[in-house]
Amino acid sequence: MTAPTPSPGTHDLAAGGAHSLVQSVDWVAVAPPVIVALAALAVLVADLFLTERRKSLLGPLSAAALALSLLALLPLTGGRRATFCTTAGPRACSYVVDTFTLSIQLLVLGAALVTALLSMTAVAQERLPAGEFWFLLLSSACGAALLPAARDLATLVVALEVASLPAFALVGLRRGSRLSSEAALKFFLSSVTATAVMLLGVSFVYAATGSMHLETVAERLPHTDSRLGTLAAAGVALTLIGFAFKTAAAPFHFWVPDTYVGAPVPVAAYLSVVGKAAGFSGLILVAVRGFPPYAHAWGPALAVLAALTMTVGNLGALRQRTDRAHGAVRLLAWSSVGQAGYLLVPLAAAGHQDHQGHRDAAVGATVAYALMYAVVNLGAFAVVAALRHRGDDSAQDGRLDQYRGLARSHPFAAAALAFFLLCLAGLPPGIIGLFAKVTVFSAAVDAGLGWLAVVMAVNVVIALVYYLTWLALLFRPAVQPTAGRARWLPLPLTVTIALTGVLALALSGAPQLVLGFAATTLF
Amino acid sequence: MIPLDDTVLQALLAAVVALPLLGAVAALLPAPPGLRGRGPEQAVLRHGVTVTGAVLVLTVLLALGFDHDHPGVMQAQTDVSWIPALDVRLHLGIDGISLPLLVLTALLTFLCALHSYAKRPQGPRPQAFVALLLLLECGTLATFAVLDLVLFFLAFETVLIPMYFLIARWGGKDRGPAAWKFVLYTLLGSVVMLLGLLVLGGNAGTFDMVRLAQQHGSGLSHGTQVVAALAIGLGLAVKAPMWPLHSWLPDAHTAAPTVGSVLLAGVLLKMGTYGFVRILLPAAPEGAHTFAPYLAAFAVVGIIYGSLACLALARKGAQGDLKRLIAYSSVGHMGFVLLGVATLTHTGVNGALYANIAHGLITGLLFFLVGALKDRTGTSDLDALAGTTGAALYGRTPRLGGLLAFGAVASLGLPGLAGFWGELLALLGAYHPAPGLSRPAYAVFLALGALGTLLTAAYLLLVVRRVCMGDPATSSPAGSSAALPDVHGHEYAAWVPLVVLTVLAGLWPAALLGLTDPAVQNLLPGVTR
Q: Any transmembrane segments, and where (chain A) (predicted)?
């Protein structure tokens, strides 16, 4: 975390006084990411002292830490809290806890917990190095949890890097797998390019406005020196492009399918939810909180990006054949690109609203959609992970055809997957998926983005084709009847599927729980 | 008729919508001890009959408890907030427009469940079949019972997945592509409709249909109304279906199992026309007025197109499929319904609603009959059935032949049967369209519609001649070796209610019109006729 940067020109030490050097930190406010960070260090140290047999303890330990950090969110629900503030000049804070922060932290930490549950089986079965794996997972989660609270550009960039650097290592952790190292390299190169572009943009913005704090940047951007106008505009554009890169929006999506296929399944699940959430919360903060004066520019750009992303993602998913290896993960990877397009729609809508209140409301639709997506996508990945460990025929690993007859052999997993797919497609009985889509549509229509709404409508229909193809496979008779009795799925995976399934069902009954974010003031 | 407390009515309506959903979940669970019957399959099919029967009883009670003196007033209203973020309320209620459709849906679904109980559907496990049937029933009943735009959309979408699987898993030849066509076409339509609903609700400030109808478009600019009416109308027109958006329908009806065809034609198509009357006409009157002439023109083309397609299929040597023929005849009949709606008059809209119900009864019956014929002879190909002289059902299975002839003449609109009044009123409405609509244009539509009734009569009589008449001795190659069994007991049970209601509705139209007319007057306040 960066030290708060006092604004240049307001170095009035007399006003700040002696206590400007010593800050009182609101430890309760920063508890959630701090707990995760401490746990990450603890796991790394413990790994050195534990014998090989005892290393299986690290998984439950990490899960417990994530659960604890989720509990640490409870005392924060009361109201807005801020810490790491400038003590001199206009008060601007680097770390703010508001509804937006809490909702994204809930998403990130919850998703990390689910990933931890998913990973326990994978770490054991794929012989991943336990200490490193859990350390990396927790570090990445810590960065992703810090990100939504960050309110200055430096903290944002640092948090984003803390979230993504461990993720590269996680992707490449499968030793001796060519696919895995290639995936990690692709992911690494594309992400580092994004960071470089972003940093350049941030430095331009700082040069033009003289501040890192988003609020101050938003205030000063319209009043920048006219000679610095081009610099400011370039800075804004480069920063946004960098964040768009991180959200895997088209045309920056090409690394997604290969990376997901090469990574261990739980890591792919983690990237599709937490990685995406991190990118999006950064984009939201920068665009809506930092650069509102340029809304007329980034609004249309994001709209085009949204239309492109959802179309590319859905067409990519449509192309997947059912007999290709890793078809299931590949399909989910492409579908996650398509879903990123839907997530961008309310952001684009925010750019088309003139009033800051309407902008925040539009952003709420993205948050609501992301929460829905996190639950059902993790659920779908959980079923995929569970079936990968069914281990009946390694030659056709992860093909979609492998899902034939699932309704007979594992009716519980099949019903759950069917429900998740319907939620992703947005059709009843997946009611929460339907209402999340309605919220996004509503944001677009309210902002007058009719054309984007129509593009999205067509995309919803395209997406139905592949979701329903997969869904129908579950209920078809298996190609060859599985020998013997169906095996039980590993316990942590069963728990995960049940947890996400119950959550998705509960949300379908009471959509207000997540859609409420679309109607409250987030910031 | 029987005085019921308003809370009782509310509970009845809520139960009608919720019961099929609970039944669908229960159908997937193992049967509890005591209800296991002769095996899991028989038990679950019986469960389907029980639940749909219970729903039918509840709707009949609802109809009896309904205040028939004030059918224009929303009754049995429940209004609970569900999702404040989207302003979605669980608002249920019925008036004279939705009540008949609710009873029709419950009746047809019950008859389908009865039919499946007696004759196990050909395909995978019946547990899934019953669950899908009940989910379908929940969606259709909810469509007619909800009074909130977003909920209407939810209910509208609920039928897609069950119907897709009913066609794709239990259907006949070419069921896969037909099912895809059905689901993609209708989904595209309904998503476009959602956009229209959002424009409408967002600009009017409410998603409540009752309040939208009261506002009657006030506060909505002309442009907004036109956009909303176009989007909503497109979505509903796919479902109805309106020519040229009908092309999913013949394939879906032909490939669907008997039960699926009956429900598709009898209930699902009605959701489209119901949406026109319930949402489009009252909430965006100027938009509806703008598009009414186009709708009428497309409707009339649909009438002519449907009957010409049927004539072509009914010809000798055309290898026309009987199910396909009835599907095309649906395009024509729904054309009359849309024409009635497009006149924007009380007469026309009442006629449309009447034709809606009549078409549900008659086409439901026809699909049942053709399904039975296919079960007996193994084909629904007209040429294979008719052979050289005709299938001679009068001689071989006189009762089945008689019923088929009855269904055909009812469908062609013989006075005294249900099919007559709706089409007559729709044409009558076109004679005096609402003020502001071009009278000469509507006169042309009227003439073409009347021509359509003649063509309809021609192909249906052709079908009767080729299927029912002929020489029993030298009749068709298909199934000629064995004597065909005549109507079974369970078939009587499924068909007699439809026959009786067809006759009743034909002889006593006031019963239905008395229900719909006051409600239509409420929805179209500015019109005198």
A: 27-50, 57-76, 96-118, 130-147, 153-173, 185-208, 228-255, 267-291, 297-317, 329-349, 361-387, 412-436, 448-475, 487-507
